[in-house]
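Lay summary. Proteins are chains of building blocks that fold into shapes, and those shapes determine what they do. In this project we predict the shape from the chain. Here is one chain we studied, written as its sequence of building blocks.
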Amino acid sequence: MATGCFRSFPFNLVCRVTAKVVCLLLFAPMFAHTQSCGVGAARQARSISLRRAGIAVLNAIEQKNTNGILSYVDSRGITFGPDKSPLSRKNLLSQFAHKEGAYCLFFSTKCISDMGRFKGLEPYPTLSEWKISYIDWLSANENYSIFADLTDDAGISGCAGEFYAEAQKQMQNAPNDIELDFYFEKGRWWFVATVEGVP
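And here is the predicted shape, written in a compact code that computers can read:
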């Protein structure tokens, strides 16, 4: 003999309706962000603008244009590895000026080898895989491919993006891709993280 909700028709119907309501209440917060990057043409436009932002940051790195990079960084700064504390925009500017830390990662292979570590950046295993700077990686991979992906469930407003430059050959002194992570806020993409991937 069946028990609980399925004991008889009236109970069965009430339980089904109740279960749906409970399900909606429990999972509504999850569904609320599923389209936070937009749908249709709006989503496509946001994906295109993410690619443009990623390319602009790579171009700024290739040109050693620190102001170009900083124009994509807000006051909260950039993280260098998962679960790391962000390096504030002010500290990032200081590292650029003193040619250490993020400056080395972005612009100077010699600086990396001279220091033996990234002064001013929190230790992270993938960071240690970078024996050359991003600018030298880009120079060695003139025909790199790019890939951008939107993520709907990041934070309260919800739209984030990952942008990758992928090597066409196996790298011996660095990971095979450069990952730049962005967050969409106040109508534009902000560069918020790098050195996220596992080589």
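What the prediction tells us: The chain has two domains: 1-32, 37-194.
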